[in-house]
TrEMBL record:
Gene Ontology MF: a single term: S-adenosylmethionine-dependent methyltransferase activity
UniProt protein name: Methyltransferase type 11 domain-containing protein
Organism name: Lottia gigantea
Transmembrane segments: none
Gene3D superfamilies the UniProt entry points to: Vaccinia Virus protein VP39 (3.40.50.150)
Limits of the Methyltransferase type domain: 71-165
Amino acid sequence: MENTKAFDIYKDFEKRKAMTKEEMLSKLNEWAKSGKYEKDMLVANWKPQKTACEVITNYYNPDRDEIRIIDVASGTGLVGMELLKLGFRNVDALDPSEEMMKVAKERKIYQNHFTEYFDGTRLACIETDTYDAAFVVGGFSVGYMPTNALFELIRIAKIGGLLILSVWEGFDEMIDEYRDRFFPLTQKMEKNGELTLLREDVIPKPDKEPNGLRLVYRVHVSESSFSHLKALQNCNEF
Ligand SMILES: C[S@@+](CC[C@H](N)C(=O)[O-])C[C@H]1O[C@@H](n2cnc3c(N)ncnc32)[C@H](O)[C@@H]1O
């Protein structure tokens, strides 16, 4: 019988952990080019893009055209499509995979397309305090965006802007790069008045994989005053 399951995430995590940056990029390009990425998303039977996007209407309702948004780790544009359905048109995309970006560009849903890694390194192409909201759906995962990416999310969001993050519940326990790093850093930033966690919702999933977790933060500073974390050894940090 055909296996209709998208993938076994634990096996996928193991494979990804062993990859170099180049191998990862080539896997991402192939995932998009073959059309398998979107098939996997459909079979996965949950819609993190939809649940992530819906929450923004609690904060920005009128003048949706005016709101400047960036979709970080934008993939083929599924988040952009959901935002468009909700009437948000002023959305930029960022992703390091040319093939993912090619599909997203064909959809004509984003204003600007940045083919870049988002890893905490300061991006010259994006000014400080630019966006009312930054989305990351599926970008905080094995071998993708490191914890240090939080620094750049804060920098490019406006003061008062939102960070809307969709991750696996328990991602910080499952993945070395985030264990004892991600939430200790956000909590330090919260204590220092740089961020506020506005809401944290578990998104139940119908299969055995972990549930989703949606986090919404408000940003209160142009840049964090903390130092970047040291890169982990043997970790595919970019
Ligand atoms: C699971 S996909 C999610 C795509 C999209 N957000 C969605 O929900 O359909 C993860 C995406 O993260 C991107 N990615 C991986 N490493 C990244 C990095 N360092 N910076 C930005 N994006 C990255 C991949 O190219 C891929 O498109």
